[in-house]
Amino acid sequence: MSMIKSTATIGGYTLLSRVLGFVRDVTIASGLGAGYLSDAFVVAFKLPNVLRRLFAEGAFNSAFVPLYAGMLAGDVRDEAHNFASESMSFLLVVLLAVTGLFIIAMPWLMFALAPGFEHNPAKYALTVTLTRITMPYIIFISLVSLLGGVLNSHHKFAAVAATPVIMNLCLIIIPFFIGPLTPNGAYALAIAVMASGVAQYLWLVYICRRQGMLPKLTRPRLTPHVKKLLKLIAPVAIGAGVAQINIFIDLSIASYFNGGNSYLYYADRINELPLAVIGIAVGTALLPMLSRQIREGREDDARRSHNHAIELALFLSLPAAVALIVMAEPIIATVFQRGAFGVLETVATYHALIAFAAGLPAFILIKIISPAFYARQDTKTPFKIALFCILVNLSFNLLLMGPLQHVGMALATSIAGWVNVIGMTMVLMKRGWLVVEPKLVMQIGKILLASTAMALVLHGLQPYAAPALEAREIGRFLALCALVAAGLGSYMICALMLNIMQLRSVVSRRMEK
To answer: What is the pLDDT of residues 180-220, one digit of tens each?
Structure first.
């Protein structure tokens, strides 16, 4: 399966998931607003999700997939299946122990996660309870990550990409039915989070069993393969999860600002739409491909694949970032401003979105560049770069939180993201693992030019759309859709005129058919 086709499959399901995620977040914003209940739920929801991205999707998957895909490339499928079974059994024991420890220690951990909540005992107690409810989610979603790695290595992307859809459906439907039975809406959402992990796990168990790929539970042992996996995991936990560690830092500092966690959460949710559709989709398709090409000694093919992935990511991410910056206010107002989420919340959130969007291409490039290290089983280099980036993020957080409050934290995260990209790119080029071809540089210039033209179009149209953007629900939505269509149309016209990614030749071939 080609990279573009794989990316389209994953991106399509991810887009569906994000649309449902918007429905979910609109429901949360309308019911909880950006205050006491919302801040408590955001922390309870963020902790298991950050752990999932940091250890399951980040560390575990980035170490597991190259080893597993390499075994498949070497035609030792039985060995690969045994490795998956050994890994799952060992992972389950670790997950049970870590989850139990977190649940027991949650009252003390909360002092580090949200120290600002200490001054509001009721808010603090609620957050501890909600987080204890959501913590078992990490067990099931980590097993989902392992099963997803198995399926992706066999180029079975669709079922894995559909799992977030299940999560969002659970968070929309379950609270509707159990809400009246719980003390408040935050409790119902926390229960739905845990239930969604179970549902996603059962879905992939069914798919893996049907494909004959389901790993078996065995007695947990430190086999040579598991030892090698563990050796790779430790540095990847930081190398692949630097953005998640930065979110932990933001979460902690934002707790000192009333509504700070909620503003950052809602802004990040908008920013994560292109991040998931582009970054996760391209990165997920790229890692198994690079692992196979490198295992087979096709270094030139690996470098070409990497250049193509970078070009594809920038072709999609740069205009997305520009659009989010130019249209931050109407996007937040249209998506969230209703019920308990008012004008003040909109203003605070859209400023955070602008700061996050400035780093969007960097967040996506991290997911595209890092597989070049992991495919070669080099996890130490991203680890060292990530350590430095965490210090950069913390330093800018402390520097900017005074004058910019929660917006400063979003901006610090974006700055750290760009530092991470620059650091990894320099190392890859020095080692000869990444050769930036003149064609790629020229394409990036064209993409910047087309994105600038799109920004001018969007900026010029907003005054004309302003009356409709201030109208009722349907009017705001249609006006926003019209602006998005105008921006997308202007970008694609410029892309065709500049022949970015050979779009003219692609269109010509389609027309000939």
So the answer is: 888 888 899 999 999 999 999 999 999 989 888 888 888 88
**CA count, 13 A, side-chain hemisphere, 318:** 21
221 DSSP 8-state letter: -
What pLDDT digit, counting tens, does each position of 55-74 carry?
Answer: 655 566 667 777 777 777 66
Please state, as a whole number, how many other Cβ atoms lie within 10 Å of the Cβ of residue 40: 30
Cβ contacts of residue 139 below 8 Å, gap of 6+?
A: 92, 95, 96, 99, 197
CA distances in angstroms from 188 to 31, 174, 220, 460, 512, listed in the order given: 12, 7, 35, 44, 55
pTM: 0.68
Q: Taking a C-beta distance cutoff of 8 angstroms, is the pair 62, 280 a contact?
A: no
Query: DSSP of 98-127, one letter per residue?
Result: HHHHHHHHHHHHHHHH-GGGGG-HHHHHHH
Tokens of 36: 């006491």
Angle, helices 328-336/3-32, rounded to nearest 10 degrees: 60
Which is more confidently placed, 304 or 397? 397
Q: How far is CA 67 from CA 22, 92, 93, 374, in A?
A: 36, 19, 21, 10
